[in-house]
Amino acid sequence: MSETSHKSSARVSILGSRLTSIVSVTLVLLILGVIGIVFIASQSATRELRSHTPLTVELENDTTDSTATALTRYFGRTPYAATVQYLSAQEILEQEMSVDPGRIDPELLDTNPFSAEITVTLKPEYSHPDSIAAIRASLAGNQYISYISVEAPVVEQSISFADRLTLILICVAGAMLLISFVLINNTIYLSVYSRRFIIHTMKLVGATGSFIRAPFIRAGLVCGLIAGILASGILAASTPWISSQMVTITGENPLPWDKMSILLGALVIIGLLLSTLAATMATNRYLRSSYDKMFKK
Q1: Residue 37, SS3?
Q2: What does the domain layout of the chain look like in residue ranges?
Q3: Whole-model pTM?
C-alpha cells in the first residue's frame, strides 16, 4: 500500500512539474508573441505612412492642356507612382474658393493666381529621402515644371519614430528570449532534479548518456509543443479583436494573416527549441555529477 501511494505521489509530482513547465513556457511565449504583434503592427503602420507621401509638381503657366495630359501619362508610367492626379489651374481655384469662400474674390482677380498641378502619390519603396532626391533630380530639367514639393517631413519623423520603436522591440525581444531561457531552464531543471537518483541508477547499470537523455528530451519536446500551441492559439484567437482596434487608428489591417501565421509558427518552434535545449542541459548536468553532488541543487 505504501509503495502504491509512493508511486502515485511520484506521478503527481512529475505531472505537477510538467504542468508548471508548460505554464511557464506558455507565458514566456505569449510575451514574445505580444512583442511580435507590436513589431508587425509598427511595420504595417510604417508602410501605410510611406504609401501616403505626395509629390506635387506645379506646371508653368503657359503649359498647354495637351502637354499637361502628356506629363500626367508620363508620371503614370513611372515605377515610383502609385496614383497620379491632374488638377487644372481653374479646378485648384474652385477648390480654394470652396474651402474658404471669403478668402478669394473672383471679381477682383485679373488672372488665376494658381498653376496647374500633378500630384503623384509615391509607392512605399520610393518614399525614402534618397529616392525622393533622385526623383526631383530627374525632373529638375523639365521646362514645363516650375516647382516640385514633397510633403515628407512629418512622414519621415513618424517613420523615424517607428524605426526606433522597432529597434527597441528587437532589443526587448532578445532580452526576453534570454530571460525566458533562464526561467525555462530553471523550471525544467527542477523537474529533472526530482529524478536525479534515477539518472544516477541508470548510469550505474550501464545506460548510455543518449539513452538517459531521451525520455527527458521527449518530455521537453512535448512540453514545448503544448506550450507553443497554447500560446499560438491564444494569440490567434485574439488577433481579430486586436486588428479591429488597430484598424480604427491606422485605417488598414495591421496584422495580416500571412505575417501572423509566420509569427505563430515561430512561437511553436521557439517553444520546442527552448524546452528541448533546457531539458538537454539539465540532464547533462546530472549525467556529469558524482553521487555526492546528487544531494546538491
Answers
A1: helix
A2: 2-48+157-295, 52-122
A3: 0.64
